[in-house]
Amino acid sequence: MPFTAPLRFLLLLALFSAGPAASRAQTAPATAAPKRQLQAVRLTGAIRLDGVLDEAAWQQAPVASDFVQQRPNPGVPERHRTEVRVLYDDASLYVGAILHDVSPDSILREMTARDKFGNSDLFCIFLDTYHDQLNGYNFGVTPAGVQYDARYSPAGGEDFNWNAVWDARTSIRGTDWYAEMRIPYSAIRFSKASEQLWGLNFARQRKRDNAQFFWNEVKPAVNGFVNQWGELRGIRDVQPPLRLSLTPYVSSYVNHNPLSAEGTRRTTTSLNGGADVKWGINESFTLDATLVPDFGQVQSDNQVLNLSPFEVQFAENRQFFTEGTELFSKGNLFYSRRVGATPIGFYDVKAGPGEQLVRNPAETQLLNATKVSGRTRKGLGIGVFNAVSNSMYATVRNTETGAERELMTQPLSNYNIVVLDQSLKNNSYVSLINTNVTRAGRTYDANVTGGLFRLNDKHNAYGLDGSLVYSRRRGQVFGKNKSINDQDGYKYTLGLSKISGSFTWDVNHRIESDTYNPNDLGILFGNNNITQSVSVAYRKYQPFWKVNNMAFFGQIGHSLLYKPARYQSLYVYHGFNTTFTRSFLQVGYDVQYNATTHDFFEPRTTSLGEYFVRVPANTDFVAFLNSDTRKPLALGLNAGIQHYAHDERLDRPRRVRYSLGVYPRYRVNNHLTFRYNLDWSRSAHQLGYVNGGLDAEQALDKPFLDKVLLGRRHVSTVSNVVSVAYTFTNRMSLTLRTRHYTSNVRYLEFVTLRPDGEETPADYRRSRDNTYNAFNVDAVYSWWFAPGSQISIVWKNANSPDLQANEFTPLYFSNLSNTINTPHNNSVSVKVLYYLDYLALRKRRG
Prior knowledge:
Blueprint: H1 5-25, E1 37-39, E2 41-42, H2 56-60, E3 68-71, E4 82-88, E5 92-100, E6 122-128, E7 136-141, E8 147-153, E9 157-159, E10 167-173, E11 176-184, E12 198-206, E13 211-214, E14 230-233, E15 244-256, E16 267-280, E17 285-291, H3 319-322, E18 355-359, E19 366-375, E20 380-389, E21 392-398, E22 404-410, E23 413-424, E24 428-439, E25 445-456, E26 462-474, E27 488-498, E28 503-512, E29 529-540, E30 547-561, E31 567-580, E32 586-594, E33 597-599, E34 613-615, E35 618-626, E36 633-644, E37 656-667, E38 672-689, H4 698-701, E39 709-729, E40 732-753, E41 759-761, E42 770-786, E43 789-798, H5 812-821, E44 825-833, E45 836-837, H6 838-845
Parallel strand pairs: 1-14, 2-4
Antiparallel strand pairs: 3-13, 4-5, 5-11, 6-7, 6-12, 7-8, 8-9, 10-11, 12-13, 12-14, 15-16, 15-44, 15-45, 16-17, 17-19, 18-21, 19-20, 20-23, 21-22, 23-24, 24-25, 25-26, 26-27, 27-28, 28-29, 29-30, 30-31, 31-32, 32-35, 33-34, 35-36, 36-37, 37-38, 38-39, 39-40, 40-41, 40-42, 42-43, 43-44
């Protein structure tokens, strides 16, 4: 049933009605709680890390207790006491915690892999070693002894990809559980001051109540997190250690590719070696380097059929590029998948008459990557990143003579980033970022420079933020005599916002010029835009009636083409979610009304601003729920409908899109968990670009080569992911992940596009119906046999969707059967890495 105009009015009313009421409810800005202080005590003897806390030194240290609840009921004192003590010596910080409870059964302790919480209680310590109230560390442990760590920064938020080498032990004694941690100074950075002053907080999660508590109260209505920590005093006469470690690796692969070219081996083996180096240049700055890295064991990408005019953004799974990169993420100018990506000339390789393509690597070989980062005592963060990739070649063989020739697909390339980030008072900062890509030979180089800032008032209640970015490309397109010397562009943003309290709002304005392009080391889905938006939000943090919390969101946005200045889109958004008190069932919805849109990017023509696809006005509604994750069986569910208005100009059925997501999770016990993800969508009467891929049959399609050809189509997509995780111990786990993705496209009619957005029927007879299938399996056995040292065995199985026939196959199980029964690439690998710490080696020799 279509959404009516009165319903749209009600949605708009709901969007803005919360604002005045919320504003009246909170006239004063939210303020942070007073900062507590804790004294650390110097050790005179040794600590045995066993999770017992039976050494006399623990009894002599001051106790941090009286934690305050942060959720679900902010501000309430804890009922079950938590006691934390901090000790230190010349090498490490020691943390001991006693977490009282009512019975052993109340202490939930699911066994998971590192950095995974699961259905478990936990305890953690937060450290702001430079006391800048912006950047910090988190070290945590569960009752099962599972460790996790994270970094905090304005750019990266909470980054669990960061990993340090430290240790923890736990035990359960009666109705309480104990945690004992040893955090070497080599795992953190701090100044050479004779007396240290660090930001400090502790947190406890009691999963049975879904409650979280902090030692220094963290108010959800106050902007920021690190700025709400207390203080750790008493650490004297400790020196930042020489932080020098080497982690060499050896890996071996057996690969079987049944689609290898005739005359080449289908089963190949390889032996690789390299190392990661970490060196503390001084107390503030650290150099991380990876030499001849091997990323063959990372999780497979979720390949999809991309019908949009923009590229697919894939997640980064390579550890070197996921940890310690928060400085380089400032301004969103660094997309790490560009480093070691598909060679820029990969798709241009063509075998000539009487030749066959023997080899064309889809990934660029990375020779090395280095990053230097740190922050001075005055809050200046400095980051330098550099990576070098090798020249890449495709191999073409003469089928008669057997002679081979090589075609360069990517020249030797250097990737560089420099960042300066100055922390200011009141959770503010200013930053300068430069990214550069330099390629050898006759091809283009790229440079992007950006400045950004965030300035908050002294109450941390209002903020002004903005950025100015300039991009420049010089040279010629690789393999083509086409200059791009005129590609200089810019982007700027400016925003004003209320950032604290139950009621918040922000106003934003952005311009991206038609020649702005940061894509050589960043990612941008579309330039040539002028956008502006107004957002409001109201959050009820305190429980009331039968719910724990409630939140309303709303936004109005408008966009124009930058050059020429023409209308693109207008939308109104409203969202709501809440969590019920007893069942912890989370429910909510999102609804967005989009006025008639002029899509200037779908035609994919250089005449930008002249051709556009007219998208009728539509309303997009999605409802969702998530059940209580404490239960063995938990369920996530969402369903949506996007309904388009009837286009009176065309005698054509209405467009409509349906979507459904089902995400059950079954925890068999504390060691074994099954997960299943189903995502289904169907778009009926979608109108989209067709011209792509005409080279193979130019004779047939020649009348349409100089025209924008669109097709009205049905698109049905199904993604199934099944994963199993069995965790033997807190240092050993086995995971299996299988994914099958299929997308069917069936065309109903074809039209050519006129410059004014009008469509003309096209006598186009070529069938473009197709089906895209992607299938992969990732099985990983991981054993952390010593701190920082790991053995991993990985099996990867995948089809080659780009090489399949792609015949239109509408039935799902037919697709699944065809995909499983077609030839697959298989890889089995073993990788051993061993952590060598200079200080530990010197101590052993002594």
